Amino acid sequence: MKVVLTGANGGVGRIIQQLAPGQSRMELAAYSRQELNILDKQALTDCLSSLKPEYLINTAAFTHVDRAEKEPEAAFLLNAGCLEGMAEACRKTGTILIHLSTDYVFDGTKRTPYTEDDIPAPVNTYGASKRAGELIVLSYSRGIVIRTSWVYSRYSHNFLAAIPLLLRTRSEPLQVDTLQVNSPTYAPDLVNALFTLAREGISHGLFHFTNTGGGCTRYDFACHLREMINRKDPGAALAQVLPMHAEVQGGAPRPVYSVMSPAKIAALTGITIPHWKEGIENII
Q1: pLDDT digits (tens, 9 = 90+) for 130-148
Q2: Which residues of 56-75 are buried (b: 16+ CB within 10 A; e: fewer)?
Q3: How far from 193 is each of 20, 146, 200, 215, 255, CA to CA, in Å?
Q4: Quick check: is 219 catalytic?
Q5: Which CATH number, 3.40.50.720, 3.40.50.2300, 2.60.120.380, 3.40.50.12640, labels domain 2-156+185-212+259-276?
Q6: Which of 13, 244, 247, 274 could be a cystine partner for 278, CB 3.0 to 4.6 Å?
Q7: Does the model's pTM come out above 0.90?
């Protein structure tokens, strides 16, 4: 099975490249943004026409939520506009397009996990751009959208992945948000789900994938991570973790509650999805 990967230098892209060799009969062609310009429709068409892959996994995205408010055109171009050319290129070769989206397509007003049947209502430009991209992919008869959230690994450049270093190097307490409730997702678990969809030959649909456990706040995540480091290294000098109850001023609005249920993809593929606490040990 031939698979083309875009966004190869990102956190999820790197994990895909790490785990692909362990997949039976998978031939992966991975491209960074410099190697394959996903804004160039002809470059995409030429690439797919040459390789004729069964799947294209798109992990490239404009992910800076606050910057998207100041640069909406750039956010919409990378999160939606380029997908028209990508879907068109896939259509010409019969390639199945797997595209990653986000929980930020929801407004956060629910207090029970969002399912694929819930109606999106993004509260910021980032979420709106990702929703626009979803509609383009889902309008393609061989398009798959995977919504995920708070994805982390050793390669991630986000707060969750940075917590272990912050705990070990800060002399002052680490203040962490208690307002947002979300579902942390360990990147290798997400990638294994993507590979399972490909192995099963799934060719269309909208799915949620996060780790299970009902979600948590960043504060809960940081406290559990600190506890695990203490168990592993009882003598470690770690910063204290303190709750921060106020919103960060000047940033884009965020959904307060955006936990998503991965029940649909679990039922379809039969995969067992780990609890959000299980992946943490791999980054400490």
Answers
A1: 999 999 999 999 999 999 9
A2: bbbbbbbbebeebbeeeeeb
A3: 12, 10, 11, 19, 25
A4: no
A5: 3.40.50.720
A6: 274
A7: yes
